[in-house]
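Thread: "does anyone have the structure for this chain?"

Original post by V.I.:
We have the sequence but no experimental structure in hand. Need at least a predicted one for the grant figures.
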Amino acid sequence: MRMLIRRNLYLYFRDRSSVFFSLLSVFIALGIYFLFLAANMERSMEGIAGLTYLLDSWFLAGALAIMSVTITLGSYGTMVEDETYHIQKDFLVSPMKRSTIALSYVFSSCIIGLIMSFIVLVLGEICIVMRGGELLPLSSFLKIIGLLVISVISSSAVMFFLAGFLHSNSSCSGASTVVGTLIGFLAGMYMPIGSLPLGVQSFVRIIPTAHASALFRQILMEQPLETITATMPQVAKQLQEELGVILKAGDTEITVWMSLAFMIGTAVLFFLLSLARLAKKKQ
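Reply from O.Q.:
Generated one for you, C-alpha coordinates below.
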Protein backbone atom coordinates (compact mmCIF):
# COMPACT_ATOMS: atom_id res chain seq x y z
CA MET A 1 0.00 0.00 0.00
CA ARG A 2 2.87 2.37 0.77
CA MET A 3 4.03 2.37 -2.84
CA LEU A 4 0.50 3.07 -4.07
CA ILE A 5 0.19 6.01 -1.67
CA ARG A 6 3.52 7.42 -2.87
CA ARG A 7 2.38 6.98 -6.47
CA ASN A 8 -0.90 8.79 -5.82
CA LEU A 9 0.87 11.66 -4.09
CA TYR A 10 3.34 11.99 -6.93
CA LEU A 11 0.63 11.99 -9.60
CA TYR A 12 -1.42 14.63 -7.77
CA PHE A 13 1.41 17.10 -7.13
CA ARG A 14 2.86 16.53 -10.59
CA ASP A 15 -0.39 17.62 -12.22
CA ARG A 16 -0.39 21.39 -11.72
CA SER A 17 -3.85 21.80 -13.21
CA SER A 18 -5.26 19.35 -10.64
CA VAL A 19 -3.67 21.32 -7.81
CA PHE A 20 -4.92 24.60 -9.26
CA PHE A 21 -8.52 23.47 -9.67
CA SER A 22 -8.45 22.00 -6.15
CA LEU A 23 -7.57 25.48 -4.89
CA LEU A 24 -9.87 27.35 -7.29
CA SER A 25 -12.75 27.75 -4.84
CA VAL A 26 -10.36 29.25 -2.27
CA PHE A 27 -8.98 31.67 -4.89
CA ILE A 28 -12.54 32.70 -5.80
CA ALA A 29 -13.43 33.21 -2.13
CA LEU A 30 -10.22 35.21 -1.64
CA GLY A 31 -11.10 37.49 -4.56
CA ILE A 32 -14.68 38.00 -3.35
CA TYR A 33 -13.45 38.72 0.17
CA PHE A 34 -10.89 41.39 -0.74
CA LEU A 35 -12.82 42.95 -3.64
CA PHE A 36 -16.32 43.12 -2.14
CA LEU A 37 -17.08 41.31 1.09
CA ALA A 38 -14.44 42.75 3.43
CA ALA A 39 -15.25 46.37 2.54
CA ASN A 40 -19.01 45.86 2.93
CA MET A 41 -18.61 44.04 6.25
CA GLU A 42 -16.24 46.70 7.58
CA ARG A 43 -18.75 49.43 6.70
CA SER A 44 -21.59 47.58 8.41
CA MET A 45 -19.46 46.93 11.52
CA GLU A 46 -17.77 50.32 11.68
CA GLY A 47 -16.56 51.31 15.13
CA ILE A 48 -15.59 47.81 16.29
CA ALA A 49 -11.99 47.57 17.53
CA GLY A 50 -9.70 45.11 15.73
CA LEU A 51 -12.22 44.57 12.94
CA THR A 52 -9.63 43.70 10.26
CA TYR A 53 -8.07 41.06 12.52
CA LEU A 54 -11.51 39.63 13.24
CA LEU A 55 -12.58 39.41 9.59
CA ASP A 56 -9.24 38.03 8.38
CA SER A 57 -9.47 35.28 11.00
CA TRP A 58 -13.06 34.60 9.92
CA PHE A 59 -11.98 34.25 6.31
CA LEU A 60 -9.04 31.93 7.11
CA ALA A 61 -11.32 29.64 9.12
CA GLY A 62 -13.74 29.34 6.20
CA ALA A 63 -10.89 28.75 3.76
CA LEU A 64 -9.58 25.84 5.83
CA ALA A 65 -13.05 24.28 5.94
CA ILE A 66 -13.51 24.66 2.18
CA MET A 67 -10.09 23.22 1.40
CA SER A 68 -10.77 20.02 3.31
CA VAL A 69 -13.54 19.38 0.75
CA THR A 70 -12.12 20.66 -2.53
CA ILE A 71 -8.60 19.28 -2.03
CA THR A 72 -9.77 15.80 -1.09
CA LEU A 73 -12.19 15.71 -4.02
CA GLY A 74 -9.43 16.86 -6.38
CA SER A 75 -7.09 14.19 -5.08
CA TYR A 76 -9.59 11.47 -6.05
CA GLY A 77 -9.05 12.50 -9.64
CA THR A 78 -6.27 9.92 -9.70
CA MET A 79 -8.76 7.21 -8.76
CA VAL A 80 -11.20 8.33 -11.45
CA GLU A 81 -8.40 8.44 -14.04
CA ASP A 82 -7.20 4.96 -13.06
CA GLU A 83 -10.71 3.66 -13.60
CA THR A 84 -11.15 5.55 -16.86
CA TYR A 85 -7.98 4.08 -18.37
CA HIS A 86 -8.48 0.67 -16.71
CA ILE A 87 -5.27 1.01 -14.71
CA GLN A 88 -7.03 -0.48 -11.69
CA LYS A 89 -7.31 -3.75 -13.60
CA ASP A 90 -3.52 -3.90 -13.74
CA PHE A 91 -3.44 -3.54 -9.95
CA LEU A 92 -6.03 -6.27 -9.52
CA VAL A 93 -3.84 -8.72 -11.44
CA SER A 94 -1.39 -8.50 -8.53
CA PRO A 95 -2.07 -10.11 -5.12
CA MET A 96 -3.42 -6.80 -3.80
CA LYS A 97 -7.00 -6.74 -2.63
CA ARG A 98 -9.50 -4.26 -4.01
CA SER A 99 -9.92 -2.85 -0.49
CA THR A 100 -6.17 -2.20 -0.26
CA ILE A 101 -6.23 -0.23 -3.50
CA ALA A 102 -9.25 1.77 -2.31
CA LEU A 103 -7.59 2.55 1.03
CA SER A 104 -4.48 3.80 -0.77
CA TYR A 105 -6.63 6.46 -2.46
CA VAL A 106 -8.23 7.41 0.86
CA PHE A 107 -4.92 7.70 2.73
CA SER A 108 -3.44 9.70 -0.16
CA SER A 109 -6.43 12.03 -0.11
CA CYS A 110 -6.08 12.65 3.62
CA ILE A 111 -2.32 13.29 3.36
CA ILE A 112 -2.78 15.71 0.46
CA GLY A 113 -5.60 17.50 2.29
CA LEU A 114 -3.49 17.93 5.42
CA ILE A 115 -0.41 19.14 3.53
CA MET A 116 -2.29 21.73 1.50
CA SER A 117 -4.39 22.90 4.47
CA PHE A 118 -1.29 23.29 6.64
CA ILE A 119 0.38 25.43 3.97
CA VAL A 120 -2.68 27.68 3.74
CA LEU A 121 -2.86 27.90 7.55
CA VAL A 122 0.75 29.09 7.77
CA LEU A 123 0.37 31.55 4.88
CA GLY A 124 -2.90 32.81 6.36
CA GLU A 125 -1.31 33.43 9.75
CA ILE A 126 1.53 35.34 8.10
CA CYS A 127 -0.97 37.54 6.25
CA ILE A 128 -2.98 38.16 9.43
CA VAL A 129 0.14 39.32 11.29
CA MET A 130 1.20 41.53 8.36
CA ARG A 131 -2.26 43.16 8.39
CA GLY A 132 -2.04 44.05 12.07
CA GLY A 133 -3.33 40.89 13.72
CA GLU A 134 -1.68 38.60 16.25
CA LEU A 135 0.05 35.28 15.80
CA LEU A 136 -1.99 32.28 16.91
CA PRO A 137 -0.84 30.89 20.31
CA LEU A 138 0.81 27.47 20.25
CA SER A 139 -2.09 25.82 22.12
CA SER A 140 -4.60 27.20 19.60
CA PHE A 141 -2.34 26.20 16.71
CA LEU A 142 -2.25 22.61 17.96
CA LYS A 143 -6.04 22.63 18.30
CA ILE A 144 -6.29 23.76 14.68
CA ILE A 145 -4.01 20.91 13.56
CA GLY A 146 -6.15 18.37 15.43
CA LEU A 147 -9.32 19.84 13.95
CA LEU A 148 -7.75 19.78 10.48
CA VAL A 149 -7.21 16.04 10.84
CA ILE A 150 -10.86 15.42 11.74
CA SER A 151 -12.15 17.81 9.07
CA VAL A 152 -10.02 16.29 6.31
CA ILE A 153 -10.97 12.72 7.27
CA SER A 154 -14.66 13.62 7.37
CA SER A 155 -14.52 15.40 4.00
CA SER A 156 -12.40 12.65 2.47
CA ALA A 157 -15.00 10.05 3.43
CA VAL A 158 -17.83 12.02 1.79
CA MET A 159 -15.77 12.80 -1.32
CA PHE A 160 -14.66 9.16 -1.62
CA PHE A 161 -18.30 8.15 -1.76
CA LEU A 162 -19.03 10.86 -4.34
CA ALA A 163 -15.97 9.97 -6.45
CA GLY A 164 -17.28 6.41 -6.72
CA PHE A 165 -20.00 7.73 -9.06
CA LEU A 166 -17.55 9.60 -11.31
CA HIS A 167 -16.25 7.65 -14.29
CA SER A 168 -14.43 10.19 -16.43
CA ASN A 169 -12.11 13.18 -16.12
CA SER A 170 -14.83 15.53 -17.38
CA SER A 171 -17.31 14.34 -14.75
CA CYS A 172 -14.64 14.77 -12.07
CA SER A 173 -13.93 18.34 -13.24
CA GLY A 174 -17.64 19.13 -13.33
CA ALA A 175 -18.18 17.75 -9.83
CA SER A 176 -15.23 19.79 -8.53
CA THR A 177 -16.71 22.97 -10.02
CA VAL A 178 -20.18 22.37 -8.60
CA VAL A 179 -18.98 21.26 -5.16
CA GLY A 180 -16.44 24.09 -4.96
CA THR A 181 -19.14 26.66 -5.70
CA LEU A 182 -21.75 25.26 -3.32
CA ILE A 183 -19.38 24.64 -0.44
CA GLY A 184 -18.42 28.33 -0.38
CA PHE A 185 -22.02 29.26 0.46
CA LEU A 186 -22.57 26.36 2.85
CA ALA A 187 -19.40 27.18 4.79
CA GLY A 188 -20.51 30.80 5.10
CA MET A 189 -17.65 32.17 2.98
CA TYR A 190 -19.42 34.14 0.24
CA MET A 191 -21.77 35.64 2.78
CA PRO A 192 -22.08 35.22 6.57
CA ILE A 193 -24.29 32.33 7.67
CA GLY A 194 -26.47 34.75 9.63
CA SER A 195 -27.33 36.53 6.35
CA LEU A 196 -28.64 33.37 4.69
CA PRO A 197 -32.40 32.58 4.61
CA LEU A 198 -33.64 30.57 7.59
CA GLY A 199 -34.35 27.52 5.42
CA VAL A 200 -30.79 27.55 4.10
CA GLN A 201 -29.42 27.98 7.63
CA SER A 202 -31.32 24.86 8.68
CA PHE A 203 -29.84 22.94 5.76
CA VAL A 204 -26.34 24.21 6.56
CA ARG A 205 -26.47 22.58 9.98
CA ILE A 206 -26.51 19.09 8.41
CA ILE A 207 -23.35 19.78 6.37
CA PRO A 208 -20.10 18.66 8.11
CA THR A 209 -18.18 21.53 6.48
CA ALA A 210 -20.38 24.09 8.26
CA HIS A 211 -19.53 22.47 11.60
CA ALA A 212 -15.84 22.44 10.68
CA SER A 213 -15.89 26.12 9.72
CA ALA A 214 -17.66 27.01 12.99
CA LEU A 215 -15.04 25.15 15.03
CA PHE A 216 -12.17 26.74 13.09
CA ARG A 217 -13.72 30.15 13.74
CA GLN A 218 -14.08 29.50 17.45
CA ILE A 219 -10.33 28.93 17.65
CA LEU A 220 -9.03 31.47 15.13
CA MET A 221 -11.39 34.26 16.21
CA GLU A 222 -10.99 33.71 19.94
CA GLN A 223 -8.44 36.50 20.44
CA PRO A 224 -10.16 39.27 18.42
CA LEU A 225 -13.52 38.35 19.95
CA GLU A 226 -12.05 38.67 23.46
CA THR A 227 -11.06 42.26 22.67
CA ILE A 228 -14.57 43.07 21.46
CA THR A 229 -16.23 41.24 24.37
CA ALA A 230 -14.26 43.35 26.86
CA THR A 231 -15.84 46.57 25.56
CA MET A 232 -19.01 45.47 23.73
CA PRO A 233 -20.16 42.07 25.02
CA GLN A 234 -23.59 42.24 23.37
CA VAL A 235 -22.05 43.10 20.00
CA ALA A 236 -19.60 40.21 20.36
CA LYS A 237 -22.48 37.79 20.95
CA GLN A 238 -24.32 39.04 17.87
CA LEU A 239 -21.17 38.74 15.77
CA GLN A 240 -20.70 35.11 16.79
CA GLU A 241 -24.17 34.23 15.54
CA GLU A 242 -23.98 36.40 12.41
CA LEU A 243 -20.53 35.18 11.32
CA GLY A 244 -21.21 31.51 12.02
CA VAL A 245 -18.86 31.19 14.98
CA ILE A 246 -21.63 29.32 16.78
CA LEU A 247 -24.36 27.21 15.22
CA LYS A 248 -27.82 26.71 16.67
CA ALA A 249 -30.50 24.07 16.25
CA GLY A 250 -33.58 26.09 17.06
CA ASP A 251 -32.76 27.85 20.32
CA THR A 252 -30.17 25.25 21.32
CA GLU A 253 -26.52 26.11 20.75
CA ILE A 254 -24.54 23.32 19.09
CA THR A 255 -21.54 22.59 21.29
CA VAL A 256 -18.00 21.71 20.21
CA TRP A 257 -18.52 18.07 21.14
CA MET A 258 -21.76 17.88 19.18
CA SER A 259 -20.01 19.21 16.07
CA LEU A 260 -17.05 16.86 16.49
CA ALA A 261 -19.36 13.88 17.00
CA PHE A 262 -21.33 14.86 13.91
CA MET A 263 -18.18 15.13 11.78
CA ILE A 264 -16.78 11.81 13.01
CA GLY A 265 -20.16 10.13 12.59
CA THR A 266 -20.38 11.44 9.02
CA ALA A 267 -16.92 10.01 8.26
CA VAL A 268 -17.88 6.59 9.61
CA LEU A 269 -21.21 6.58 7.76
CA PHE A 270 -19.77 7.44 4.36
CA PHE A 271 -16.83 5.09 4.71
CA LEU A 272 -19.28 2.28 5.46
CA LEU A 273 -21.43 3.26 2.48
CA SER A 274 -18.34 3.29 0.26
CA LEU A 275 -17.26 -0.13 1.54
CA ALA A 276 -20.75 -1.52 0.89
CA ARG A 277 -20.63 -0.14 -2.65
CA LEU A 278 -17.14 -1.58 -3.12
CA ALA A 279 -18.31 -5.02 -1.94
CA LYS A 280 -21.28 -4.87 -4.34
CA LYS A 281 -18.97 -3.88 -7.19
CA LYS A 282 -16.67 -6.80 -6.42
CA GLN A 283 -19.57 -9.21 -6.78
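V.I.: this helps a lot. The chain has a mean pLDDT of 85.
O.Q.: and Strands lie at 248-249, 252-253.
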